[in-house]
């Protein structure tokens, strides 16, 4: 049995390599020959060649985002020798994923004489959509960081005026221009890479074009409307599946060579662009205005309730799909000028690893030397907003770690909601404090949430001798 795999998580830091290690370990235990490619934050490592993919018995994708070079696996999909799961599933129990892959290979072998079973364009739609949104967010984040950081620095030098913060320093005005360029690109990038995850490179160009279209006013009756992130996400999904359908068209070799660079981009942009302008723009603008008004007006108990939910989701899977759902929600609101939910989330992301680190250093009778070494690195990761720093503690003792970090994150996010703290960049931890509306309170909320989370962890942990 020959298995090849690709691992890729949203951030490209922890889950990618934990999943890779889990697959390799499980295959070694069973005597299965395997090669696992990792697509992390630094790019592709241990890259699979086309010959290695074609020569395998089965392909396993443990991914939460769209990947580079996905066209390499089209043949294996067509032969029914392709399995896609999430990184969290593999990390939790790699044997289940490998069992499924082996069973798939055996089933495909029985129908190989018929050329395999080709799946429809909507096969695995739920997982494909989750991966697509995570892909869009992963490419979207650096662009938002550029825009948010430059805008935060430039506006911090301004003075409050009748029309908001007025920047007069010429150098800071130039920083403001750079920041606005990043902000202007956010929605097109989000739409383009959601579509790309679903249908590959041919969907990239129309994704950019339609993302730009929904982010700018278009005439609907006597008014001009812009639907922002909501329109971008909907049009990106429609674009992805429209392009995926076009790729199934039977054409001669001459036409097929120009399909991805001419026919698909032009036809997709024309059909879906007109569909948006004449059919979707009006209804979507109504929904967008309502959503922005409701979330922008949250105060007191309503805001705190939202903060508690965001905090619980953030810590629940420490960088996994639930965490990324909360992240997507808050960053989408940023594009409409609503920054408070992002402030809640950016406090919450820092709490779990810092809480675990503090607990391991304080309760020396309940954590061993290895835990304390992990604790130092976890605190550092928390300070720079990487929630995955808590994963090693959760792997060793999930039942006691998860309640502590969820409570801590919920408290931190709830405090940020109560205080109305806004964060203007899509990252968390102390390193983004300057890009918040209240630097002292933002930092204090992280500290309070981490201390409460650590206290719960210490209270629940038994002594080493009692385990």
UniProtKB/TrEMBL annotation:
Keywords: Cell membrane, Kinase, Membrane, Phosphoprotein, Phosphotransferase system, Sugar transport, Transferase, Transmembrane, Transmembrane helix, Transport. It comes from the Bacteria. It holds the Pfam family PTS_EIIC. One of its GO terms (cellular component) is plasma membrane. Signal peptide: none annotated. One of its GO terms (biological process) is phosphoenolpyruvate-dependent sugar phosphotransferase system. Residues 129-467 form the PTS EIIC type-2 domain. SUPFAM superfamilies: PTS system IIB component-like. It is a multi-pass membrane protein. Residues 1-103 form the PTS EIIB type-2 domain. The keyword Magnesium does not apply. InterPro entries: Bacterial_PTS_Sugar_Transport, PTS_EIIB-like_sf, PTS_EIIB_2, PTS_EIIB_2/3, PTS_EIIC, PTS_EIIC_2, PTS_IIB_fruc, PTS_IIC_fruc. It is found in: Cell inner membrane. The chain crosses the membrane at residues 137-156, 177-199, 225-246, 258-281, 301-322, 343-363, 375-395, 402-419, 439-460. GO terms for molecular function: carbohydrate:proton symporter activity; kinase activity; protein-N(PI)-phosphohistidine-fructose phosphotransferase system transporter activity; protein-phosphocysteine-sugar phosphotransferase activity. This is PTS system mannose-specific EIIBCA component family protein.
């Amino acid at each position: 049995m020959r298995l090849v795999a690709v691992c890729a998580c949203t951030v490209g830091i922890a889950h990618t390599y934990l999943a890779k290690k889990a697959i390799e370990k499980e295959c070694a235990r069973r005597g299965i020959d395997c090669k696992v490619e990792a697509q992390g934050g630094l790019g592709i490592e241990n890259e699979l060649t086309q010959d290695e993919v074609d020569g395998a018995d089965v392909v396993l994708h443990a991914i939460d985002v769209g990947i580079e070079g996905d066209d390499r696996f089209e043949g294996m999909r067509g032969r029914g020798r392709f399995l896609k799961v999430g990184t969290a599933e593999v990390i939790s129990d790699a044997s289940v994923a490998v069992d499924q892959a082996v069973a798939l290979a055996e089933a495909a072998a029985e129908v190989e004489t018929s050329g395999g079973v080709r799946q429809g364009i909507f096969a695995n739609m739920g997982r494909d959509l989750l991966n697509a949104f995570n892909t869009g967010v992963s490419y979207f984040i650096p662009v938002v960081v550029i825009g948010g950081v430059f805008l935060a620095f430039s506006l911090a030098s301004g003075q409050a005026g009748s029309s908001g913060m007025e920047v007069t320093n010429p150098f800071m005005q130039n920083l403001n221009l750079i920041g606005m360029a990043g902000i202007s690109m956010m929605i097109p990038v989000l739409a383009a890479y959601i579509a790309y995850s679903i249908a590959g490179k041919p969907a990239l160009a129309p994704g950019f074009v339609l993302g730009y279209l929904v982010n700018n006013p278009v005439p609907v009756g006597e008014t001009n409307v812009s639907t922002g992130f909501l329109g971008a996400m909907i049009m990106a999904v429609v674009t992805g599946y429209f392009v995926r359908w076009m790729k199934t068209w039977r054409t001669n070799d001459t036409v097929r060579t120009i399909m991805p660079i001419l026919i698909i981009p032009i036809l997709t942009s024309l059909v879906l662009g007109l569909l948006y302008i004449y059919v979707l723009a009006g209804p979507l603008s109504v929904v967008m205005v309502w959503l922005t008004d409701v979330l922008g007006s949250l105060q007191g108990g309503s805001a705190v309730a939202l903060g508690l939910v965001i905090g619980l989701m953030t810590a629940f899977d420490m960088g996994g799909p639930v965490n990324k759902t909360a992240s997507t929600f808050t960053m989408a609101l940023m594009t409409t000028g609503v920054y408070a939910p992002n402030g809640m989330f950016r406090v919450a992301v820092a709490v779990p690893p810092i809480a675990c680190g503090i607990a391991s250093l304080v309760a020396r009778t309940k954590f061993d030397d290895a835990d304390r070494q992990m604790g130092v690195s976890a605190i550092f990761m928390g300070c720079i907003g990487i929630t995955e720093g808590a994963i090693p503690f959760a792997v060793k003792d999930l039942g006691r770690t998860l309640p502590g970090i969820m409570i801590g994150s919920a408290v931190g996010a709830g405090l940020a909601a109560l205080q109305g703290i806004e964060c203007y960049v899509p990252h968390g931890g102390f390193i983004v404090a300057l890009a918040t509306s209240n630097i002292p309170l933002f930092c204090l909320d992280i500290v309070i949430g981490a201390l409460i989370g650590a206290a719960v962890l210490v209270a629940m942990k038994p002594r080493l001798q009692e385990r």
